């Protein structure tokens, strides 16, 4: 009894009365179905409204479109800010029309909100609680559809320019609907009226502003800056500064108190379960009172909504809004954020941002010191770190956007602020967190976010160096910061260097020898011995790497996964550091401190040197500036292909001979770059899935052994089956078995009756007919399929395939997901104060099934993920009480870094798993459309060589042909002595007898070999034509489309000018054909500027009426339009393919091969002409003949005229010398008694004869016309043989010499001067770096091409200031950004010589 009383006393001490009442109310709570119907409805509707309607898209975004329906909008009015009754409103600059229009309800609503925002201060406080504005601001934001930020760009991949432009145009239209009615100005007014106090109204206003400015809308930016300059209200800037001041940072003290409170709550929960059986008899009123009081037990901690980064989303929205005001390097807005001229008070928002960043960095450091002594960062700490990283990343991006361009004022402001203190702190944090997180695979998600944050910080530092000059002040301050953080920088460099070597280590043959099973798994001891044997690491490095390894249940290490896990992040951080150090190295001279850091990073710089592109441009300030960018490995691989090298050599040879000036050379260079970029992209597209890098081959080999467990058995069975079939076929064809089979068949036939024999014959004929018919059907289907591929766009096929292959995404399984009360409160405005079924709840306390699920995109199934519902584990270990509920889990580091990023959301059950299981990055094994055609295109050169070799073998066999003459006696012989016989000639193949050998190849065998080689050559010729179509026709089409697009957009061809009378028939036909294709819906198909017609329409709309433009340019193709474009197809085949000489040559090559198979094998003699085109030296000889082709043809025409004159003289005066006496009474042969015969004889015999026509005639001695005849012969010899034929030979020889001189001149010009800047070699000989470094590093020919490809592939919103400047010049066909006659070394020649 005493013990029981003691226990009850203990419970009374632990459990207060309020908590007992709460437990009773929770245990005996009545369910919804026990209440009355009307009360259930009243409970249900608020919860449904707040938790479902606000989360799901049920048509709120259509509300704005419905309101604006029927309102006529003016086309392109200029937006102005005017004052009406003291309220700035948006108005059109055009004069109002007399025609009355319907009122615009949306415009009236926004104007009403604007007046509310500008009310007196006494009523301004009501704005914060204006639920109507909050709801409408949310609806307006939803009406503008923007893409979610991925957060990590990863490697820049090629983007679909057409789809991107369509999305941009749609976004601009949605933004214009609101901006033209004053929504953007309304945002500024409400932010000014907020007074710097964060609340839901400010949050929704920021979201609306972000949606309006998304994508860098220049018109809205201009509208905002005009309003701020007109109103001169400092409240906006003071409010923004106040909001930054109110933004929270991490609070370690509050975090520790939350942990203690949650631990105590967990202990009390155990006692509550035991007590619940004893308090079921309490009254209903007591339970309800206990519930109301019990839910408030954590009110002290829950009240800090704006503390400990609970407002992380709000903070990110605030800085994102400021970033978007400067998006696109808006210099005016960048300067306005720093200083507001004309205002009573100037607020420097740049310094305010730096102050917040410094506060945030110090709070993150507090958390680091808290976890520095712990081995693993728990889930609670990881969540806070991730929130801090998210906010820091956004702050870095905002500062980066505020200085890019560059904005020199903001750069100097940051340089003179405490930014360097924050950067030094972050360097320390990155170095030590890398050391800590690399050791544990469960921390890789957090490590990935830290590496992304480090990348954002280095991008900010690089933006500080935009427009940097030699030995500039900002560069020197940055060096000081690096020197101050030198230990941390060296530690980061050490980690990068250590993990970069892993790829070369694990892919080496010596290392893979330790993997005896070739399955990708080795023991830790073998891994250590392998690293020691390579002698690439020190003992300390090997010890650290062994600490980072994970083993499976068998105690083995997956070294390929280990390499992928650590090499990719090391490459990311290493490349950004390499760019920063190279930039400082080339701009800061004579600084031994920097040289010491560069020396430590020498290995890193050498590793990234091939991938670090650098060029020089003439900047907007008319100074030479350096640009650094990343060169993709695939670009270097494609640049090294033989066809690209041939194109480069041909371009250099042609452009250096064409004296078109600097502008002409640069124009040709840009055209070459565009063609080469498209060719490289096309080659990469047809080579997709055929990558053969060292690492990928090793991974494929590892995956083969991991996934295909019975692959070796299957291969063995395949070989065994093939061997057995071969043995069976050989034995069946042996003479003995053939004889036995014939005897058996004969015996069976003899035993059959006549009906049975007839039935068997019919069955045999039917089966043979079916086999032949099936074979013919397959052949016809193959031909039709090929023709279909030739005439069908690959993009349309892929689109149709994707649309037909789409499956509805599957909902994530949350049936067994469990949650514990989180310690981190989410700042989500739709979940504030939710009353669900009469119980005050936070959304984080709800079961996941009560919330709408965000359906992620379906992922490819893997052996690990293909599990049935019964096989899936119900749940992993329950979540720790100290771990907060994360919204989403980012991809693991080796699944996301180094590859194009995708937003992935995982279930809470996956997030709650405490153990992290690393996997290899999944490879895309899907086949591309037309994989057979792509395979043929990839092997174009190989097929070309095969056809050449086969043609050579065929012509070798043709040498064994001879003519056999058979004699038949005449049926009507006059006498026995008559020897007249009819001779019949036939061509046969003789055999081949090898000397000193008894073996002989018969003519029949050679004939069979010749036939089958001919058939094989015909097949190879057809494959060669297909591969040429797949490989070369897209490039030819691209060039033609680019030519038409440039003429249309820049010259106004077909719009402002009519057909010229000077054009020939062919040119006129092509002119009209090009005009027809302009109006085709599919034009352009290959050229990357898909909206050239839209731009042309906008450019010439003031010069040409709309009807004429529509008739010429046609209508835009709708995305849903899948009809066949016959106009484009006709232009493609008639105007591009059938007019291309190379394609016609391949067609003729195929026809000759077909004639060789079906008509005569001697057609294969023409295929030997391909030898001339296959070897460059022979091609040069042929070019020497065609170089002066016009002069050569004119000389031949002159020869014909001279020969004709001599023919006239001979016909009239010397006919008797052309008579040759016949034999045995035959009539004489008179060569010159017919004018045509006489002319042919003079040209045939006279020109070929060494001494002229006189060598072919009778001697004139003793004739009456002796001297006249001598003069005739000598003059013919002199004019025709000596002069005219010598002129022909001289033209060919001179052309050969001229081509050789041009080649030598081009080579000498390239070796003696720079192609880009055209500065001579002698100028660089007196410089420290020299001419070779200048042409290979600073003005590398290929780097300018790679930079243009970098601009084409990169999103325009991600451009730096220098990239934006170059892109604008390029779009306007202005080549002033090329540093012609200038370079960085020459610009700072005096300073460099002094150093």
Largest sheet entry:
2 strands, antiparallel
Spatial ordering of strands, largest sheet: 1-2
State the helicity in percent bands.
Answer: 55-70%
**SS-based class:** mainly alpha
Q: Give the distance, in angstroms, between the N- and C-terminal Cα atoms.
A: 96 Å
| Radius of gyration, CA atoms, in whole angstroms | 42 Å
**Fraction in beta strands:** under 5%
Shape: globular
Number of helices: 60
Average pLDDT taken over every residue: 75
Low-confidence stretches: 74-79, 92-99, 120-124, 150-158, 267-303, 691-695, 704-712, 793-929, 971-975
Strand segment count: 14
Describe this structure in words.
The chain is mainly α and 1395 residues long. The protein is 61% helix and 4% strand. The chain contains 60 helices and 14 strands. Strands 1-2 form a two-stranded antiparallel sheet. The chain has a two-stranded antiparallel ribbon with strand order 3-4. Strands 5-6 form a two-stranded antiparallel sheet. β11 and β12 (1000-1001) form a beta hairpin. The chain starts with a helix and ends with a helix. About 16% of the residues have low confidence.
């Amino acid at each position: 009894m005493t013990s029981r009383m003691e226990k009850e006393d203990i419970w009374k001490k632990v459990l207060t009365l309020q908590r007992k009442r709460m437990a009773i109310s929770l245990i005996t709570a009545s369910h919804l179905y026990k209440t009355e119907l009307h009360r259930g409805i009243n409970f249900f509707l608020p919860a449904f409204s707040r938790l479902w309607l606000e989360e799901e898209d049920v048509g709120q975004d259509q509300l704005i479109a419905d309101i604006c329906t029927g309102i006529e909008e003016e086309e392109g009015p200029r937006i102005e800010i005017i004052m009406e009754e003291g309220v700035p409103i948006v108005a059109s600059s055009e004069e109002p029309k007399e025609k009355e229009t319907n009122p615009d309800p949306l415009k009236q609503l926004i104007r009403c909100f604007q007046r509310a925002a500008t009310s007196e201060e006494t009523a301004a406080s009501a704005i914060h609680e204006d639920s109507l504005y909050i709801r409408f601001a949310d609806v307006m934001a939803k009406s503008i559809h923007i893409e979610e930020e991925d957060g990590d760009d990863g490697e820049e991949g090629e983007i679909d320019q057409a789809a991107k432009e369509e999305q941009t145009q749609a976004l601009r239209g949605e933004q214009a609907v609101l901006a033209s009615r004053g929504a953007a100005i309304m945002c500024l007014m409400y932010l000014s009226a907020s007074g710097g106090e964060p609340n839901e109204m400010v949050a929704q206003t920021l979201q609306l502003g972000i949606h309006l400015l998304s994508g860098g809308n220049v018109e809205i930016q201009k509208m905002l800056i005009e309003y701020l300059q007109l109103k001169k209200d400092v409240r906006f800037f003071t409010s923004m500064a106040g909001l930054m001041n109110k933004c929270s940072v991490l609070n370690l003290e509050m975090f520790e108190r939350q942990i203690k409170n949650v631990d105590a709550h967990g202990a009390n929960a155990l006692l509550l379960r035991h007590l619940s059986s004893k308090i079921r008899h309490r009254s209903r009123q007591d339970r309800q009172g206990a519930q109301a009081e019990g839910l408030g037990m954590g009110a002290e901690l829950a009240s800090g909504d704006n503390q400990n980064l609970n407002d992380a989303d709000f903070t990110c929205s605030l800085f994102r809004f400021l970033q978007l005001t400067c998006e696109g390097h808006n210099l005016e807005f960048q300067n306005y954020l720093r200083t507001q001229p004309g205002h009573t008070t100037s607020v420097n928002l740049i310094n305010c941002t730096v102050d917040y960043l410094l506060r945030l960095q110090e709070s993150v450091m507090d958390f680091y010191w808290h976890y520095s002594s712990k081995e693993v960062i728990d889930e609670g700490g990881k969540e806070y770190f991730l929130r801090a990283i998210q906010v820091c990343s956004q702050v870095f991006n905002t500062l980066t956007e505020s200085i890019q361009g560059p904005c020199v004022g903001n750069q100097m402001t940051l340089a003179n602020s405490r930014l360097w203190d924050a950067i030094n702190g972050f360097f320390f944090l990155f170095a030590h967190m890398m050391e800590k997180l690399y050791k544990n695979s469960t921390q890789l998600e957090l490590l990935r976010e830290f590496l992304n944050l480090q990348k954002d910080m280095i991008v900010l530092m690089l933006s500080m160096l935009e427009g940097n000059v030699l030995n500039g002040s900002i560069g020197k301050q940055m060096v000081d910061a690096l020197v101050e953080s030198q230990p941390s920088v060296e530690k980061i460099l050490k980690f990068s260097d250590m993990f970069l070597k892993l790829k070369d280590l694990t892919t080496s043959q010596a290392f893979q020898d330790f993997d005896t099973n070739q399955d990708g798994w080795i023991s830790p001891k073998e891994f250590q011995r392998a690293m020691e044997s390579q002698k690439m690491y020190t003992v300390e490095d090997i010890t650290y790497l062994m600490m980072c390894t994970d083993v499976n249940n068998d105690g083995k290490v997956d070294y390929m996964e280990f390499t992928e896990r650590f090499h990719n992040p090391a490459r990311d951080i290493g490349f950004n550091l390499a760019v920063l150090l190279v930039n400082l190295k080339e701009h800061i001279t004579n600084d031994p401190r920097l040289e010491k850091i560069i020396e430590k990073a020498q290995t890193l710089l050498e590793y990234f040197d091939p991938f670090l592109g650098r060029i020089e441009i003439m900047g907007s300030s008319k100074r030479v500036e350096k640009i650094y960018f990343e060169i993709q490995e695939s670009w270097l691989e494609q640049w090294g292909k033989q066809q690209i090298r041939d194109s480069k050599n041909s371009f250099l040879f042609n452009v250096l001979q064409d004296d078109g000036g600097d502008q002409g050379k640069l124009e040709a260079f840009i055209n070459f770059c565009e063609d080469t970029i498209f060719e490289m992209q096309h080659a990469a597209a047809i080579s997709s899935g055929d990558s053969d890098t060292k690492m990928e081959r090793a991974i494929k080999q590892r995956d083969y052994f991991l996934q295909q467990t019975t692959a070796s058995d299957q291969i063995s069975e395949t070989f065994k089956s093939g061997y057995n079939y071969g043995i069976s076929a050989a034995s069946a064809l042996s003479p003995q078995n053939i004889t036995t089979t014939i005897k058996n068949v004969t015996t069976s036939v003899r035993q059959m009756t006549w009906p049975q024999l007839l039935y068997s014959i019919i069955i045999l004929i039917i089966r043979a007919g079916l086999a032949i018919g099936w074979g013919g059907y397959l052949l016809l289907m193959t031909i039709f399929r090929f023709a279909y591929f030739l005439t069908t766009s690959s993009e349309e096929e892929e689109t149709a395939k994707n649309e037909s292959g789409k499956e509805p995404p599957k909902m994530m399984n949350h049936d067994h997901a469990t949650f514990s009360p989180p310690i981190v409160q989410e700042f989500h405005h739709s979940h504030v104060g939710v009353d669900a079924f009469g119980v005050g709840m936070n959304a984080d306390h709800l079961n996941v099934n009560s919330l709408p699920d965000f359906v992620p995109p379906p992922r490819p199934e893997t052996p690990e993920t293909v599990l049935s519902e019964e096989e899936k584990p119900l749940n992993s270990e329950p979540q720790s009480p100290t771990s907060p509920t994360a919204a989403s889990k980012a991809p693991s580091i080796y699944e996301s870094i180094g590859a194009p990023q995708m937003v992935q959301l995982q279930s809470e059950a996956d997030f709650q798993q405490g153990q992290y299981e690393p996997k290899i990055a999944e490879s895309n094994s899907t086949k591309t459309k037309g994989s057979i055609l792509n395979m043929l295109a990839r092997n174009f050169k190989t097929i070309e060589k095969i056809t050449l070799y086969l043609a050579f073998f065929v012509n070798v066999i043709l040498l064994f042909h001879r003519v056999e003459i058979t004699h038949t006696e005449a049926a009507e012989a006059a006498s026995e002595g008559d020897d007249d016989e009819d001779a019949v000639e036939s061509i046969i193949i003789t055999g081949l007898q090898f000397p000193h050998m008894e073996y002989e190849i018969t003519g029949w065998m050679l004939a069979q070999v010749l036939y089958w080689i001919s058939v094989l050559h015909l097949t190879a010729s057809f494959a060669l034509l297909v591969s040429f179509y797949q490989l070369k026709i897209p490039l030819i089409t691209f060039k033609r489309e680019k030519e038409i697009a440039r003429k249309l957009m820049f010259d106004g061809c077909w719009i402002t000018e009519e057909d010229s009378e000077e054009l020939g028939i062919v040119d006129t036909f092509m002119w009209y054909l090009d005009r027809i294709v302009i109006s085709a819906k599919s034009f352009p198909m290959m050229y990357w500027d898909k909206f050239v017609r839209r731009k042309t329409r906008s450019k010439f709309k003031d010069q040409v009426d709309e009807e004429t433009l529509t008739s010429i340019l046609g209508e835009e193709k709708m995305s849903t339009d899948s009809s066949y474009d016959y106009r484009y197809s006709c232009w493609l085949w008639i105007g591009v393919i059938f007019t291309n000489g190379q394609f016609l040559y391949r067609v003729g090559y195929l026809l000759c091969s077909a004639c060789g198979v079906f008509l005569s094998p001697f057609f294969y003699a023409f295929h030997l002409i391909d030898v001339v085109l296959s070897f460059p030296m022979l091609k040069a000889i042929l070019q020497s003949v065609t170089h002066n082709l016009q002069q050569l043809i004119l000389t031949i025409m002159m020869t014909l005229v001279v020969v004709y004159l001599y023919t006239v003289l001979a016909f009239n005066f010397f006919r008797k010398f052309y008579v040759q006496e016949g034999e045995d009474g035959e009539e004489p042969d008179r060569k010159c008694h017919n004018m045509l015969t006489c002319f042919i004889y003079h040209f045939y015999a006279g020109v070929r004869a060494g001494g002229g026509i006189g060598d072919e005639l009778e001697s004139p001695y003793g004739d009456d016309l002796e001297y006249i005849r001598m003069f005739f012969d000598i003059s013919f010899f002199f004019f025709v043989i000596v002069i005219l034929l010598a002129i022909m030979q001289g033209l060919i020889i001179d052309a050969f010499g001229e081509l050789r001189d041009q080649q030598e001149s081009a080579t000498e010009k390239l070796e003696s001067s720079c192609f880009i800047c055209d500065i001579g070699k002698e100028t660089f000989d007196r410089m420290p770096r020299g001419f070779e470094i200048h042409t290979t590093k600073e003005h590398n020919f290929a780097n300018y091409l790679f930079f243009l490809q970098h601009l084409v592939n990169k999103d325009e919103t991600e451009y730096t200031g220098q990239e934006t400047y170059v892109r604008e010049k390029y779009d306007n066909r202005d080549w002033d950004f090329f540093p012609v006659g200038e370079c960085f070394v020459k610009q700072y020649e005096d300073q460099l010589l002094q150093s």
